[in-house]
Every structure is written in C-alpha cells, then in structure tokens.
Amino acid sequence: MTPKAMWEVPSKPSDSRSRCHAATLRGCVVLAVALVAGCAMGPSREDPFEPSNRVMYQVSDAIDTAVVKPVAQAYVDVVPQPIRAGVSNFFNNIDDMVSAVNDLLQGKLDKLGDDLGRVVLNTGFGLGGIFDLASMIGIERGNEDFGQTFGVWGFPQGPYLYVPLFGPTTVRDGTGTVVRIAVGGPVGYIPNVAVRNSLYGIGAVDLRAQALETSSMIDTAALDRYLFIRNAYLQRRRYLLYDGKPPPEPEEP
Amino acid sequence: MRKFDSVARLRAAAVLLLTSALCAAAPAFAQEAPDAIVKRVASDVLATIKADPAIQAGNEARIREVLEVKLLPNFDFARMTALAMGRNWQAATPEQQKRVTDEFRALLVRTYSGALNNYRNETIDYKPLRMSPADTDVTVRTLVVRATGSPVQIDYSMGKQGDTWKCYDVIVGGVSLVTNYRDEFNNQVKAGGVDGLIKTLADRNKGVAAK
C-alpha cells in the first residue's frame, strides 16, 4: 500500500495486488495535454500534477499512519517470520505467473522459460507456492508486469500520479495495473467469498509489511518524502523497464 | 593409458590456469582493485556487526563508530554532494560546500546505520568485474540475498583517486542515491539558497521530521 517507494522492495513495482482506478482514467484523458505542457515545465515534466499529487500523498500518508501501517506492524509482531515468508512466496508465485504472461507479450523467451520454470517448480513442489524452491536453486524472478510491457511496446510513461492507498504510479503503470486487475488470478476463482476476500486482505497487509523497513528508512533519509518517493519510484521503474541495464539519463540543461 | 592421458592433460591445464591467474593478479598487489575493496570492506563491516554484542543489542552509536572507522574512509562525500547539488555546487562558496558535505554525510550515516540495525544474515554475491587497467570509473555490482523477500541488487560507483578507489554513488535496486537527492537539493536551494539547504539538512540531522 503506501508509502512504498521501491527502494528496497524490488519484487513489487506496480502493485498487482492493490486496487486503484479512477485517477488512471482521469490521467489518460489529460495525458496528451500534459505531455505538451510538460515539455515547457523543466524539472517537473514527469510530474505535471505535482500540486494535486501532493494533496493525495498527504491524504494517503494520514490513512497509512492511522490505520495501514499499524496493521502491518501488528502483523509483523504477531505472525512468526517463516509464516510471513510463506505468505510472501504464495503471492509472489502468482505474480510470477503474471510475469510469464508479460515475458511472452514482450517476446523475452529466456525470461519466459525462467518464470514458467519457477511457477511449475514452486506450485508443484513448493506446496502451491508457499516455498520458493526456485530461488533456492538460483532461478531469478522475471519481475515483468503490464506497465513494463506497455513501455516495451513504445507507449509513453505519461504523468506521474500518486493514488491514495495505492501509492506511486504513472499513467502507463496505472493502466498496467488496471489490466492486471481485469486479468485476475487464481485467487479470483476461489468460490468462497470470505476466503477469497481474506486472501486479498492478507496480500495487501503482506505488501505493506514488506515495505516497513523501507518506509522507516525514507523517514530518516528524505528531506521531502513526496519527492524522495517519486524519484525512487521513477528510477526503479526505468531500471525494471530496461531489465536492470538502463541507458544513461540525458543531462539536464 | 587414455585415462592417464586425460589426468595429465587436466593437470597441465590446471597449472596453466593457475599461472595465468597469478600473472593477471600481479598488478593487483601493487594496487587493490575496486571490486576487491568493496568486498573487503563489506565483509569486514558485516563480520564486525555480527560479532559485536553491543550492536546486536541495538546500540546505534556503536554501529556509527564501526562505520566511521571501517566504511566511511572509502567514500568520497564531497563528490557525492557535488553530484547531488548539480549546478548549485559551483555557485556555492567553499565554506558552504564543506558544510553541505558534512551535513549530507551525517544524514547518510544516520540512514545507513538505521538500515544496518535491521541487518539479519544477508549474504552478498559479488559479480565479476570487467575493467581495463586504464579505467578510472567503474561500477562494482553485488547482489544481496535476504532470508525473506527477493534479492536486492546493490551497485557501487567507484572513481579512482591516486592509488586507491573511492565510492561516489550507491545504486540500490536501480535507484541511485545521489540522483534521488537531486530534486530535493535543487528545491531547497531554490527556496532558501545554499544556506537554506544547509539548515534543512542540519534540522533533519537533529531529528526534525521531514515534511
């Protein structure tokens, strides 16, 4: 949930498990205008909506401090580490399936092999993904998502957006998340509504819990947390888009 | 006979390999390679932290002491600060440059010692470094494997200074520390000049919360 700059949590860039939406649609509508206007705006060309994004960030931060963070902290305090690791692995395994789909959409066949291998191994021998056997033998996660696929296909990043309870995104990544939600996943096929919703809830808490150390680091390091999170998010996404080998950024004039 | 042959050939190959490895390593004796520095310093700091009961009990002052002695001499904080400030670095007086550097250094040390407080049995894989003897700027790549969660790639940008190498940027999972501060520093200078930046950094170091 939020704030979750990607500083130290590489596995979950644009979070497949959270939900957001309206802002993305609004973003699409104004995308063209913003891209034109953005060119003249110098340093904040990636964030033309900074004033409203900052308000969203404040709202989000207040909810996080009051509710989300305490819940995540309680989860870490109460649930033993091996069980939490199993929960993370279970949801990561689902993300690996999504990653495999995106490997295919991007034509990255070597990554596709790795991700499919991971899913088969972890689902079959790792008790439905609770144990990450694939990582133990060194098969790295593909970490692909729909936002990156759109980037590979040449869609522009679009303005940066901060969505309450969801966190940092861009028009491109947010659109990817909408697609991800539409595609669904194995949890969506669980017929019992209570079980299904509990799993979604646990998934969300797990994400925020994984970001606890990162968010406390940001509290120490940042002069302006909004900017710190924005810059870390955009750097991280760029790095993922280029599979860990981003070209040097053009120098600012 | 065939079997003996292959054993002998293996031995010859091993001797050759060893000799060439020694030849390749010879210049490194005169001057420690950047990846060797990263590996030595990281192993040393982490081993010290693991072995120190005060640190294990959560004593942050002691962590800072260890960092001060073992880690920080390998960083070029003036260069980091100059990169984070961009054009504003040139516009600042030498006195201002020194004060920003000192405050930025203190902020990074506070952050880093807090992060090390959470250190639990991570292991570090060092990726092989390809460099030519003439290089003066290299990136040493490492992968930190954690008990839970995915591995994190941490890269160190190293610049040559005389006979040794100093780190001027740390890139965690693709996020460059120096780049990340650029907008923040720029905004501070725009709002309150270089002295405004110094004041904000100093306030943060005194524990005043960020906005």
Order of strands side by side in the largest beta sheet of chain A?
1-2
**3D shape of chain B:** globular
Structural class of chain A: mainly alpha
Strand count, sense and barrel status of the largest sheet of chain A are: 2 strands, antiparallel
Alpha-carbon distance between the two ends of chain A: 35 Å
Strand numbers in spatial order across the main sheet of chain B = 1-2-3-4-5
| Total of DSSP H or I helical runs spanning 4+ residues of chain B | 8
Rounded to the nearest angstrom, the radius of gyration of chain B is 22 Å
Low-pLDDT stretches of chain A are 1-43
Number of strands of chain A: 2
Q: Low-confidence parts of chain B, pLDDT < 50 over ≥5 residues?
A: 25-30
Structural class of chain B: alpha+beta
Write down the overall mean pLDDT of chain B.
85
Work out the strand percent of chain B: 15-25%
Helix amount of chain A, in percent? 55-70%
Distance between the termini of chain B: 78 Å
Strand content of chain A: under 5%
Order of SSEs of chain A, N→C?
HHHHHHEEHHHH
3D structure, described in words:
- The complex is a heterodimer of chains A (253) and B (211).
- Chain A has 253 residues and is mostly helical.
- In chain A, 62% of the residues lie in helices and 3% in strands.
- In chain A, strands 1-2 form a two-stranded antiparallel ribbon.
- The longest helix of chain A is centred in the first third of the chain and has 29 residues, at 50-78.
- Chain B is built from 8 helices and 5 strands, in the order H-H-H-H-H-H-H-E-E-E-E-E-H.
- Chain B has a 5-stranded antiparallel β-sheet with strand order 1-2-3-4-5.
- In chain B, a hairpin with a 6-residue loop joins strand 2 (137-145) and strand 3 (152-161).
- The longest helix of chain B has 29 residues, at 2-30.
- At the A-B interface, helix 3, helix 9 and helix 10 of A face helix 7, strand 5 and helix 8 of B.
